[in-house]
Amino acid sequence: MRVLVSVASRHGASFEIAEEISATLAAAGFQTAVLPPDAVTTLDDYDAVILGSSVYVGHWMDAAVHLVERFSKEIRERPVWLFSSGPIGHEPRADDEPVDVADVVAATGAREHKVFAGQVDRSRLGLGEKVILTAVRAPEGDFRPWDEIHAWANEIAAALRQG
Length: 163
Ligand SMILES: Cc1cc2nc3c(=O)[nH]c(=O)nc-3n(C[C@H](O)[C@H](O)[C@H](O)COP(=O)(O)O)c2cc1C
Fold this sequence. Notes:
Layout: E1 2-8, H1 13-27, E2 31-35, E3 48-56, E4 59-60, H2 62-70, H3 72-76, E5 80-85, H4 101-108, E6 112-116, E7 119-120, H5 127-135, E8 141-142, H6 146-162
Parallel strand pairs: 1-2, 1-3, 3-5, 5-6
Antiparallel strand pairs: 3-4, 7-8
Helix pairs in contact: 1-6
Bound molecules: flavin mononucleotide (FMN).
């Protein structure tokens, strides 16, 4: 079974989450590919899709939303899981749900949407981004929950095996 793990990532933190999910699925015996949404030209090669995005100012990145729009029919025909990577310095809360995700869940028929804490490395950010983070008093650091990410990927593997 072939699984596409596609993630929109501006500074790489969410891409590394996608790589961890992919590695976990590969270790469980699945064929996987990790691609940014813009590099996905067809879903024909995949039996299941895991789609993620980092969250900026409450929104998914456009490329992830556009993937759903570009493959609106094909993506509904496959099992889909969604994840967001964002919250910094606290456990994900109900209000960390990106505003676009309800529509993405509806459009894809996704089985689940997970929010994982993210990473901020200020040395990678542009000035405008630093200003926003300073304004909302977000701390710098890597809060990504690797054990939880790994466990979620194993849950997906189990669900895919059950069909
Ligand atoms: C300017 C800016 C705005 C952000 N806004 C949000 C937000 O609204 N909600 C959230 O959960 N995370 C927010 N974040 C945190 C990012 O989503 C987090 O750092 C994520 O891990 C970045 O992933 P990436 O490196 O793959 O882009 C913001 C980060 C920056 C720099």
